[in-house]
Specification:
Distance between the termini of chain A: 59 Å
Number of strands of chain B: 14
Helix content of chain B: 25-40%
Oligomer: heterodimer
Shape of chain A: elongated
Number of strands of chain A: 19
Order of helices and strands of chain A: EEEEEEEEHHHHHEHHEEEEEEHHEEEEH
Structural class of chain A: alpha+beta
Helix content of chain A: 25-40%
Strand content of chain B: 15-25%
Shape of chain B: globular
Order of helices and strands of chain B: EHEHEHEHHEHEHEEEEHEEHEHEHH
Largest sheet of chain A: 7 strands, mixed
Strand order of the largest sheet of chain B: 3-2-4-5-7-6-12
Largest sheet of chain B: 7 strands, mixed
Number of helices of chain B: 12
Distance between the termini of chain B: 40 Å
Structural class of chain B: alpha/beta
Chain lengths: ~375, ~325
């Protein structure tokens, strides 16, 4: 008998959601054959059977959120029946309230406080039918009271007539990519010390080259940033706890918006790639992101991020740091504006570069020098070709 | 109402009882000419003379033995032992003689003595001068144990202890001597064996012992901000223990935290926890929690001692855990 465990596909993954069982209970499975589709925090993936045998028991249903390393199925020898102890564990030591709130399996003694037991006995309530919400899933006095009088339990403390409720279109749980985005950004907001620097940049040459080279503005920026990171390695770094890591690999993430939410796939060794290679890769990653086909590998390992809202007429913006990275560059639109070239007023295509960096890692002056290098790389872009 | 320090309230209690009863006699190290290490006996030698305020040699066994002898022969001695850590030297007189005489003599003898002492946890006095060990004496039937947590109680409980016809161990907290609180000028006493509900609450009961009553009240105020309503009880005496007040509170709140400055293992919290389980098991909605000191000697280093001591934040933390917050 072998247990199929919820795998951890990246270090940050806490739990995975069962999207689809590809095999039914009782079906024969071959080692290496995909049996279930799991949605992690960054993508969905298929889990393969670790052994050949009969899929004798599914321990999680579609839609269940299961903690990493918890069993989700049991593969037995062909024809063998599942032993009784292979039942799903009654309450898992997890932070998810949902898994704690499992009713007890009949016949097992429920974990309940003495007060809950006394009340249940007095009210004639079967504790195995009560959901425990206390620490470790323990059934408390309040849980028994709620079970005894469900109407009373769900009554809000403030009378409904006193509060105004806006009309709801729909409610949805924060999950999948949306949940990952929320958690990463909240982490960033709570833990980083962001400082914003802005610099106006003359994009005259860039606008011309963009057309002749058939490369996107993003591709130029990826290359310009990668080259600048070569000169300023402290910006090519990350911080976790009190440890700062500086990298020799320069892997630039490009933020891409998808229907499911924001993703930031990585252009690995961007400083060593040609503009054309970068351009092709950005196009490919954007396409994969659109169809939710990005792999964990493509979504990890970044050392710096760029985010571009210029296509939506944004003048400039300060993006949130993509933790644990040190820096992120926000790009606005390129637009013709009055420009003083010496004593002459003329117009030129200008854009604003916004660098947000984590002041815990690097100070303002070296960050300013880095941004200056990016600006120069973009104003004289020929060497990027 | 006027305010007095804990030390001055004790002093006033001693003085009033000495005026009231000529048989009340003080004895101890440095209590006369030096007026007490914590100035609890300030001015008393001058007022009552060396016959009633006796400076003794540095021998705790002699102090306790003399007190037992005085008590058996009709006096009401109030002996001071400078640090609670020195009580083991008095143990034979206290546990084997004082606590048993009344029982063994079939009630013909009485031992109305008060042994005052203090514990200095939190004052950087080191491992040998900081301990709070009330549980050692809980194992001695016949001994009353009193622990005032504020100036009002210090005076009221001391007067009752002096008037009691049994041996009383009167445990003061060194950290509280300079704290102030209201003390009425008119005569009052507080009966031994009555806990006091210091603050009403619905969700959790925090039982404070000695200095921890103040920490429990601070914790209750902090818990209020997270919508946890804590009831705070001052135990005031461990022997006799007012189990009724504690159990009645726990029956309402379903949860109990016991906060004390002694070592957790085999401490007073363990005893009270067991008694509450025996009397209110069906009302408990969470395990009874004990906030106490770790099972190590007390560190001298000020930061380590701060880390070692129970405090309001530790109470808040465990209260939240119990409440599942």
């Amino acid at each position: 008998m072998t247990e199929v465990l919820m795998p951890r596909l990246d270090p940050g993954m806490q739990s995975g959601k069962i999207v689809e069982w590809l095999k039914k209970e009782g079906e024969t499975v071959q080692k290496g054959q995909p049996i279930v589709v799991i949605e992690g925090e960054k993508t969905t993936f298929e889990v393969e059977a670790p052994e050949t045998g009969t899929l004798s028991k599914l321990l999680a249903a579609v839609g269940d959120d299961v903690q990493v390393s918890q069993p989700i199925a049991i593969i037995g020898l062909s024809g063998a029946t599942t032993p009784a102890q292979a039942e799903r564990p009654r309450s898992q030591p997890s932070t998810a309230a949902a898994s704690l709130a499992q009713p007890t399996i009949p016949g097992e003694r429920a974990v309940a406080s003495p007060a809950a037991r006394r009340l249940a006995q007095e009210a004639g309530i079967d504790l195995s039918q009560v959901r425990g919400t206390g620490p470790g899933g323990r059934i408390s006095r309040e849980d028994v009271l709620a079970a005894a009088n469900p109407q009373k339990a769900v009554q809000p403390t403030v009378p409904v007539s006193k509060t105004r409720q806006p009309q709801v279109i729909k409610k949805m749980k924060l999950e999948g990519i949306r949940k990952a985005v929320a958690e990463r950004l909240s982490f960033s907001e709570r833990n980083t010390v962001p400082v914003t620097l802005t610099m106006e940049t003359d994009a005259s040459k860039l606008v011309k080259l963009k057309d002749t080279e058939h490369a996107s503005f993003n591709s130029f920026v990826v290359k310009a940033v990668a080259k600048a990171l070569e000169v300023h390695p402290m910006m090519n770094s990350s911080i976790e706890g009190d440890e700062v890591t500086t990298y020799s690999d320069i892997n630039v993430c490009v933020a891409i918006n998808t229907d499911q939410g924001l993703v930031a796939p990585t252009i690995v060794n961007a400083n060593k790639k040609s503009l054309k290679e970068i351009n092709d890769e950005v196009l490919l990653l954007a396409e994969k992101a659109k169809f939710n086909q990005l792999t964990i590998e493509e979504l990890t390992g970044g050392t710096f991020t760029i985010s571009n809202l210029g296509a939506y007429d944004i003048e400039s913006f300060a993006p949130i740091i993509n933790p644990p990275q040190c820096g992120i560059l926000g790009l606005g639109r390129i637009v013709y504006k009055p420009y003083a070239a010496g004593e002459q007023i003329t117009t030129r295509p200008l854009t604003v570069l916004t660098l947000v960096f984590d002041h815990r890692i690097i100070d303002g002056l070296p960050a300013a020098k880095f941004l200056q290098t990016v600006k120069r790389n973009l104003e004289d872009p020929e060497p990027l070709l | 109402m006027r305010e007095l320090t804990y030390a001055d309230a004790l002093r006033e209690g001693l003085r009033e009882e000495m005026l009231r009863d000529p048989n009340v006699i003080l004895l101890g190290e440095e209590i006369g000419v030096f007026q007490g290490v914590y100035k609890v006996t300030r001015g008393l030698l001058e007022e009552f003379g060396p016959e009633r305020v006796r400076d003794t040699p540095i021998s705790e066994a002699a102090i306790a033995g003399a007190a037992v002898g005085l008590a058996l022969t009709g006096f009401k001695p109030v002996a001071e032992i400078m640090y609670m850590d020195f009580l083991p030297i008095c143990m034979d007189q206290l546990a084997t003689q004082a606590a048993k005489m009344r029982f063994m003599s079939g009630g013909q003898l009485k031992v109305p003595l008060v042994l005052r002492t203090q514990y200095s946890l939190g004052r950087q006095h080191g491992s040998q001068h900081s301990q709070f060990t009330p549980a050692w004496f809980l194992q001695v039937p016949g001994l009353k144990i009193v622990l005032p947590a504020n100036p009002y109680d210090a005076k009221g409980l001391l007067k009752s202890a002096i008037r009691d016809s049994n041996p009383v161990l009167f445990l003061e907290s060194g950290l509280l001597y300079r704290t102030k609180g209201p003390v009425p000028e008119e005569e009052y006493t507080i009966p031994l064996g009555q806990a006091e509900v210091k603050r009403k609450g619905d969700d959790i009961t925090i039982l404070g012992i000695s200095r921890q009553v103040g920490e429990a009240l601070t914790a209750a105020r902090k818990l209020e901000q997270t919508s946890i309503s804590a009831e705070v009880i001052d135990v005031r005496t461990l022997q006799p223990l007012d189990l009724k007040t504690i159990v009645e509170s726990v029956k309402r709140t379903s949860r109990l935290i016991i906060a004390s400055d002694d070592v957790k293992t085999g401490g007073v919290g363990a005893e009270i926890s067991a008694s509450v389980s025996e009397n209110a098991f069906g009302y408990l909605d969470a395990p009874i929690a004990r906030i106490a000191c770790p099972d190590t000697p007390i560190p001298f280093s000020p930061p380590l001692e701060q880390l070692y001591m129970p405090n309001a934040d530790k109470i808040v933390e465990i209260a939240k855990t119990i409440m599942g917050r």
